[in-house]
Structures are given as C-alpha cells and as structure tokens.
Amino acid sequence: MNQDNGGIIGKINTPTTSVASGVWSLQDQFESQSSSIWPLGFPQTTIANTCRFNDGSSDYLNLTLPNANGAVYKWTYSFWVKRCNLGSLQIMAGTRFSGNFTSQIKFDASDRLEVNDYRNSFLLQKVTNRVFRDTSAWYHIVVSNDNSVASPETEIYVNGVKETSFSTTNEYSQNDTNSFNNDYPNYIGQKGTGDYFDGYICEMIFIDGQALDQTSFGAFNPATNIWEPIPYAGTYGGNGFKLNFSDSSNLGDDTSGNGNDFTVNNLTSIDQSTDTPSNNFATLNNLDLQSGTKPIYELGNLAIAGATDGGVRWIGCSSIGFSTGKWYCEVKNLTTSNPSLSAGVSTDPSENARNNNAAGFRSTDIATENYSGNIVINNTNVSVGYGSTWTASGDICMLAVDIDNNKFYIGKNGTWADSDDPSSNTGGYSMSGVTNASGFFHFSFGSTNGTYMNQMQVNFGSPPYSISSGNADANGHGNFEYAVPSGYFALCTKNLAEFG
Predict the structure, then answer these.
(1) How far apart (Å, rounded) are the C-alpha atoms in residues 33 and 384?
(2) What is the C-alpha end-to-end distance of the chain, expressed in Å?
(3) In this predicted model, what pLDDT tens digit does every residue of 248-278 receive, in sequence order?
(4) In this structure, are residues 200 and 125 in contact, taking their beta carbons and an 8 Å threshold?
(5) How far apart are CA 492 and CA 469, in angstroms?
C-alpha cells in the first residue's frame, strides 16, 4: 500500500448508505461512522409525521375497540411524545367506560408520569418520582403488562430505560380484569371528559396479546448513544392499532392492517406536523423567563394565546440555539391593533429581540412609541421607518440570521428590507455590537403590551398555520410561505447536526 491510495482504507471508492462495501477513505469512514451509516448500527427508521394536539381547542381521537375476547391480560403501548404546556393534568392515552371504570397514561399536575387502571378502586397505579419538564425534547414511552402471571408487573420505559423509582406503586393481582385491553371507548389526547393533552404525539401503537419491552420499538444509536425509533416488526392482535398520522385528511387512520380507525375530533390537516423524533424542530421555549403574568402558549408552543395581565411583557425564544450557520424562520401577525411586537435574535433568553444582547425588528419606535417600525440593536434604533405596515393581519415577517458573517436580515411578505439579499450577503444589519457571553443565539420574539398578546404565530419549519405556497430549505426540511434564502436552513436537529 502507499500513501496516495490511503493504505488499507483507500480514498477513491464511493461510500454506500446500506453496507460498508468497497474501499473507503479514512475521512469517509469517519464521517459515515459519525452519522451511523457505516455500517448501519441498527435498523433505523424515519418517522415522517406527528399529530399536534392543542388543549385550547379540545383536540382528541376516540375509538371503541372491536372485541374483548383476545389475550386481555397482555398488552403494550408504545408512542413518542413532545410536551408543550406543563403543570396541568394531561392525558395521552387510555379508556373510559364510566367514571368508575377508566385507564390512563398521563402526565399529572406535577409533571410526573402516571399509569393507572381504576375499577371502583385503583387496581393499578404507578406514579414516577421524576418529572418530565423538557418541552424541547421527545420522550419515547412504552407501557406493558402481563397480569396472567402470579406476580404481575407493569413495566414502564422512557427513552429505552426502565422506570424503577415510584412515589406510588400499586400492581394488578393475577388475572385482574383490566380496562386497557377491553371493549371500552379508547381516547388519545383526553380521558373522555377533559384533561386534554397539549403537545405532539407520534407512532402511537397498541399491541393486544403481548407484553413487549422497549427493544421492539427503539434502540440506542451506537455512534451517538441516543435512543432512536426502529420499525416494529411484530403483530398487533385484534384490538391493536398503529397511528402514524401520515394522512393529513384522516389523522385517525389505523395503519396496522386491523382497520381500527379513530374518530377525529377538532383536529385538522394543519395539525399534521413534521416535528418528530427523527427531526426535532424548534418551538418557543415556554420555560424562558417572563415578567408579569406568564402568557399561554398554544399550537405546539408556536403561538401566544394571551394573559390576564394587560401590562405583561412576554418573551419567547427558540427552544434550539445556534452558534454557527445561517438560519431562517417566519412570524405571522394576527392583529391590526397597532401591536408592539419585536422579532429577531438574542443571546439572552430573558431578553427579547428589542433589548440588550439582541438584534431585530420592532414594530414600534423605542423612543416615541409610534408605530413606524425600526431595526434595533441592543435597544437602540439603527434604522427607522421600516415595517410601518406590519400591522395588517396576515403579514408575515421573514427573519434570516447569518452567524458566520454576524448579520441579520428582516423582510415582510416576500420582500427583504432596503433591497437586502441574504442569499448573496448583500446589505443586512451587523450584529457586531451584540454581546454573546452564552456562545449561542436564539430566535427571539416579544411584546411590551399584554393587550395584544394574541398576535404572533412562529414558523420554524413546522408551521402552526396554513401555508399557501410551500417552500422547503435546500435540505428539503421545513414548510415556509416564502422562499428560504440560498444557504439558509430551517432550525431543526438534522440541519443543526450539519451546520450548527
């Protein structure tokens, strides 16, 4: 061997994404191992769609299972969930025959995970000690039970790890009739009488007749040690179902082959999202610091519903930060009442885009409070008079942030301000005066007037509102109203792994 050929690992053969065939360069081998495609560490799968539930509009799915004559003592639930609202009781899945016969998989008001089966009393109740408050992450939850054995144990797995610490732990007795695998009305997103879920759910699977563990649905990526989905290859049983939310016109469609389709309630095609465990999109981080009364976040943490305090100042930053790269998002205005809005970037989650450590657009002049619309750097006007008509309901503000060249761009309804062109690095506004002690920028939004809080919907690539045209970035990610500038990308984990 010689250096020109790269030795045992050569440098001339093209890698494949299925097997480690041929002769690979050392760099190709390293990059492919890093991305877990040399060879495939496990049978990976890409989850394409999820369903976005909004408790404010009482979204849910329901179905009465067709029979209770199968292996009723054995069952398994598997699903992925991304939370939004915290601190309230929210049901992900369960059944309800009456108030005295119910079963639930839920987050309680203390954000603990609870699984219970109530039949005049709790036959099963397990409540975790740990809490689940990360609204930027996906959790994979598996619950399985076989109460035909002498000492039944309901097993709960989160992201591949078995839960073992519980504040409450009551188990079925052998051969107890259970409510989970019975001919009761099933609900996803509520308990049958409320406690609606707020967040994202995908790959909702119910297995009738088998008590399976987490390895049937996921595996740890050997390159990253991150728990990831794998295809379920088993059977479902007569009562089983799988909801992959791939049909936006029928979000309750059962793709298991059983035809156990759910009835859709208050969900529409816009509630189908591409924010999934395979590609996690940014949302607004509802854990950011606030002053006054904290606003209500809705539509998958992509919109503000308002607050009771009319003088509240609210701040919303993206749940994902970035230290390099070029990023794009859009913001839709929903009010015509002279909103005091800001949109841009910040290095401090407690400050919005018009304050210190931030750069962006504000619809009101900082000094005069008239609605002239200004570009603001560190709470100082640097360009006056742009965006004065961003008070029309339906106006969409475009934001492009170039961390590599330390610039940002503002546009509206398809036109960039001052004839700027982010694709060619022409014009724009310098962020050189913005202190970046944290090392990360976040898209940042805010209002100084609580009266107009119900005024913004943010699109990081998984829009909370209908898109009339449809534009993805160069990697094929995101769905935007206007063309994504060349070289800019939607803020999601797949793009972040490459450019962030």
Answers:
(1) 51
(2) 37
(3) 999 999 999 999 999 999 999 999 999 999 9
(4) no
(5) 21
